[in-house]
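Record 1 of the preview.
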Amino acid sequence: MINLILIGAPGSGKGTQANFIKRDFNIAHISTGDMFRENITNNTELGLEAKKYMDKGDLVPDEITVNMISERLKQDDCKTGFMLDGFPRTIEQAKSLDEMLKSLNIKLTAVLNLKADDAEVLKRLLSRGRSDDNEKTIKNRLNIFKNQSEPILEHYQDKTKVIDVISQGLPNDIYANIEKSLKEI
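->
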């Protein structure tokens, strides 16, 4: 069983690599964005609570997010392991996640950190052609990510294995490095 946190800057290839990992390691891919949408669509109590914040353009409080993740981890497809994508994003969220996992008696296997240099990320994101992907906003998102992710990586350094993978080159080559690292755990 492998329980992962997937960390990487926007454009680092998290989505692509998450699909490979999910396929080959038979673990649940838990994207907080997807989880919010699913809870809102199904009108769950947590979904309705989250929607109140989202409709105002506010961030969903960590407590609601952690409770959604807790409920999600109890589903059958998580019995073989899981990969959290998009959470935690702050050190406070990491601490809340730690407490929740401890209460469920779940041990984190590793934090997988996809690393790509800024020039590569900029090139990838600009090529997507999305309206919110311009050089200024991308650089701002990268700065926010760096400021938030470094403390998270430091937080987990003493708690679990942190695997740094250079996320540049062909997706299959990047995945070969991830697969090798995960099989060595």
